[in-house]
Amino acid sequence: MALLPPTLPLAQLEVGRHLYWQIGGIHLHGQVFLSSWILIGVLMAFVVLGTRGMQRDPIGLQNLLELSWGFLRDIARDNIGEKHYRDWLPFVGTLFLFIFFSNWGGALIPWKVFELPDGELGAPTVDINTTVAMALLVSLAYFYAGLSRKGLRFFELYVEPTPIMLPFKIIEEFTKPLSLSFRLFGNILADELAVAVLVYLVPLFIPLPVMLLGLFTSAIQAMIFATLAAFYIGEGLHEFH
Amino acid sequence: MTWLLFAEAGVPEGGLFDLDATLPLMAVQVVLLTYILNSLFFRPVSKVVEDREGYISTSRADAKQKLAQVEKLEADLSEQLKGARQAAQSVIVAAEKEVDNLYREALAQAEAEANRTKEESRRAIDAESESARTKLQGQVDQLSNKIIDRLLSAR
Question: What's the whole-model pTM score?
């Protein structure tokens, strides 16, 4: 490592440093909110521009939006079922869109242009708070879905198909959000780190394949998160006979 | 950009797994985003797509019905056409037969007429040649008598 210059202007690894905002007595990670607001703004711009003056014969951006709508509807319908998927499509779809925009935005927007006093802007999904928040929302959503649909009979889930499954099913309630959040967090962080390390070592051309692979994994991770969320909700709604 | 730094004092250590109030606020933000996207994106798009699907299925049913009508009409027409063709065929056959009959009749008539005329003319020729022969016979008799007379008187 002695051969390398101590700091390159393009690449600097800043892991675990945050731009702290203090409101009252609580601390927030400012960079996560800043980048998420920018990305939500981009998403909103797409949505507003695409849904403006929609027609029966779709034109322009409407095609793209309908394509993504259909894609999300298929995810929701395949995992939740024909009967209930309409109620949960917005939630599952929002998870997908937010994660997808976060991941791709984190990789495609040149965040280094914005100087922060501390920490750096990046994909909001690179912060564990974001992924845990969404994973817990998924857990809440499927408890809510099951309890509101079936009442206390929801807990039959724990003894189906046999009561032997009870301890495993209870453990599963903890591993589901854990695996959801860490899968997303780990993949996106690892991708950003791999790209950052490669850029640090060889700033030109060599990191490009890894960046492309990162875009691919980012999209896949968004789809996995949304599919699993839909699957868990579908499991909560499932009727045992 | 220092305005982004709300507080300098009491900043925590940081770290990769630093869970704090970002978590609940991010959850609230995602829920809000869900409601906003529901009213801006999912509901309008699903309305448009489902309207279109309804339009397509009704127009397809319409088209199917029209196609069935057309097929029925076509079958009717081809039935009629077949009947008309058969009628025309029978008319043609009848006409041909009639023409044939007329032709035969005319032919027989013409033949009869020709025979009659031939017979008549032959009879006329016969009669004339008979009369000519008798006339010639008389003249021959006269001439031979005259020759005999002359020969007898010259002696």
Answer: 0.74
